[in-house]
Amino acid sequence: MTELEIKSLTKLYYAIGEVAEMFHVNTSLIRFWEKEFGFEPSKKNAKGNRLYTVKDIQNFNKIYHLVKEEGFTLEGAKKALKSAKTVPTGTNLGDVISKLEDIKSKLINLKAKG
User: Fold this and answer.
1) What is the C-alpha to C-alpha distance for residues 74 and 26, in angstroms, rounded to an integer?
2) In what order do the strands lie in the sheet with 50-52?
3) What pTM did the predictor assign?
C-alpha cells in the first residue's frame, strides 16, 4: 500500500478483513503482526471485532514493507522500527526535518520565557 493509497482512506475505522484485503494477506497474519509487534487495535466493537484507524494501517504498512518487500526477519523488522532508522514509505525527509526544527525553536522559546 502506497502513501497515496493511505491518504485516500476516508473511514474512521476499518475491520480486520478490510485491512487484510488492503495488504493482500490473511486476517491471521494481521493478528499475528499485532501480537508480535505489540500493536493493539484502536478499538473493538460490541462483538469484540478489531477496528483499526488509519494510523494503525500506517503501522501495518511499515511492517509489511520491512517484512514482505525488504525481506527483513521479524526480529530485524522489530529492531528497525525501534531504532527509527527506517523512514516510512512516501515520507519527505525535508518535511520531517522542517517539523523538527519548528519544534526545536518552540522549545527554545519556552525555555527563554521560563
Assistant:
1) 17
2) 14-15, 50-52, 43-44
3) 0.65
- Say if CB 16 and CB 50 are below 8 A apart: yes
The CB density around residue 1, as the number of other CB atoms within 10 Å, is: 19
Domain ranges in the chain are 3-113
Tell me the helices (H) and strands (E) count for the chain, helix number first.
Answer: 6, 3
Choosing among 1.10.1660.10, 3.40.30.10, 1.25.40.10, 3.10.20.310, the CATH entry for 3-113 is 1.10.1660.10
Q: Select the more confidently predicted residue: 89 or 63.
A: 63
Over residues 44-85, the pLDDT tens digits come to 888 989 999 999 999 899 999 999 998 999 999 988 888 854
pLDDT band at 43 (very low <50, low <70, confident <90, very high): confident
Three-state secondary-structure class, residue 17: helix
Q: What whole-number distance in Å separates Cα of residue 34 and Cα of residue 20?
A: 12
Nearest CA among 21, 8, 24 for reference residue 90: 8
